[in-house]
Amino acid sequence: MGITYPSKAIEYIKRLTDTKVPVIATTKNPILKAEPKNAVIEQPFERAKPEEVGIPSERIAEFLRELYENRDVDVHGVTIIKDGKLITQAMFGPYEATLPQSTFSECKSVISLAIGILIGEKRLSLDEKVVDIIPDINPIAKKRYEKLTVEDLLTMRSSSCFNEIGAVVEENWEKEFFTIMPFGSIGKTFFYNSLNTYMLACIVHHKSGTTVTEYLRPRLFEPLGIKDIFWEKSPLGTECGGWGLYICPEDMAKLGQLVLCGGVWNGKRLVPKGYITRATRAHAKVPEDYGDFDYGYQIWIGRNSDSFLFNGMFGQNMFCFRNTNTIITANAGNCEFFQQSPFCRICEKYFASEAPDVVIRDDTPSLDAMMKRLTRKDFRYEGFITARKDKKQALEMMAELDGKFCTLPEGKTTSISVFPVALQVCGNTFGKGLEKIGFETKDGRFIVSFFEGDDIISVPVGFSDYEKTEIKLGELPFRVAVHGRFAENEDYLPVLKIKLDFIETPCSKTIKLIFDENEVHYSQDEFPGTKFIKYGINFISDNFLSKGIFGKMSLDERVADADYLSYRAESKLSAKADFTLV
Prior knowledge:
The chain is of the alpha+beta class. 30% of the residues lie in helices and 23% in strands. The longest helix is centred in the last third of the chain and has 19 residues, at 555-573.
């Protein structure tokens, strides 16, 4: 019975990495998403200069400079809280502090708080058996998981193989979670799996009789002044739990402050102290290739410092240092799945211990200069362009392209979309394949239109500054910041380079068009990139094929297949196509 899901998962990845045929969703329900809108921050943190809490502004500037210049991190925004006061909020490029951000697994820790509140209300216990809470479990599956407790889910020790990839190929996640045989020892084997958190969200639903969001609204969100949030739901209507929460960085920092204060906010207890103590203590030893943290109750626990971490894929972090009473929240677009980038180590370098004992003077100009630098529009670390066109030449190219189209040769198809693959997968909604690109100058703005099937996605391109607009992937709305550059490549051919930052998310896409007389050579790159799909490929290979779920397939066949899929993934994310200019 359990073979269906892994078979579907491998077939899904093969279709996802096809460079010629657009993907069709395998489940009926796309993940719904809220309209992008800026939030009102209620109960904001008190503002203070770094010097007022004993930190030189120059030290903050050095921290931001190190993040900005490090090639292995792509930070979009950083908020720093010290002694309960907001001392820095730095937004990089076009990103906005009041626009709710996708948190990915960072929101797992919020589900943990919901479980703690349920326990405080005497509705739930840590040792309660999950099969006694979830209704209508198949008797065979119920027997398999009869020892599974709430605490096992919290500590990622359920041993269930039904994971994030399964969530895009199946609709009844609650049922499928119990379908596959456990692969390890329940309660002992650590195996990170976002569907553990989904099951915790289901427990909140079954125990409270309402959704996670509605349960938490009067108990957590309203007391903290958290108003503008959105949580994506499964096809059956339960919050995804382990991902899908959109929240502003300052509001996320409030949740960190709540935990740092032992579950108390403004003198009122919201979460039991005993639960917070247990939740922020290591219960599971985590392999070192995940990063420098062990695992508590859906919260990462620092090995190298007295710290805990809410962590989400691609660099969504809320990092708390107990001994310095400091919180750093960050959103990013890193190619990482846990804490493998230098971000956490850079944070520890500056905030794990108090600033050196020096005379502190007001040095806000150095910090102001660094903050200004962060907003600069650029293509960092990308050096294929040899010469940028000046304004006059750029205007000439805009005029020359006005009203023209790039079209594919007859009979050719692509699976290219203006939307990054990561967004398509997470929304379970897919582009229809790029067929044509149009150019237009209208009211002084240069507009590029991407034709995908019967969808036309038009974006204004900013050259001196970002142009922001809203575009839709199917019915999913995204706010995007677009900037471009006309230049020449090393062969002195005209180039138009466009970068699209999907500013509620970690995702961005860079498109390069090289004009060679009537031929237009299209290439692209995406952030986060090939590691995103490679992770899924390796997961299937390591956790299904290597465990013999598909019978007697040889190791050589498995490795060859994984290597081939990885090659296809790189081809997909760095796709190329040749168009004709007409």
